[in-house]
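Problem 12. The chain below contains 84 residues. Write out its predicted structure in token notation.
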Amino acid sequence: MSMKRTNVYADPEDLAIIKEAAKLRGISEAEIIHQGIHLAAMANRVWDEPLFPRTFRGAGRTPGKQDVRDAVADAVRRETGTAA
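Solution.
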């Protein structure tokens, strides 16, 4: 992958942490900065598609504890072939 050079301002304390982490991990400071930039880019990316493209039928409300227990019990019964 081709890289492009850029200048950024960084807090001296952050740079010290990066220097220490690079030394402990045995990688370059630049690699840690590359990773940080990638994480920031992905965290701020605007996606064209919804995260969950499918919709699911439901009661239109947040299920309660008993609803969840009943759903799990029904699924176990279906998987094991046992009656209610």
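Discussion. The mean pLDDT is 88. Students who got a different answer should revisit the alignment rule from Section 12.3.
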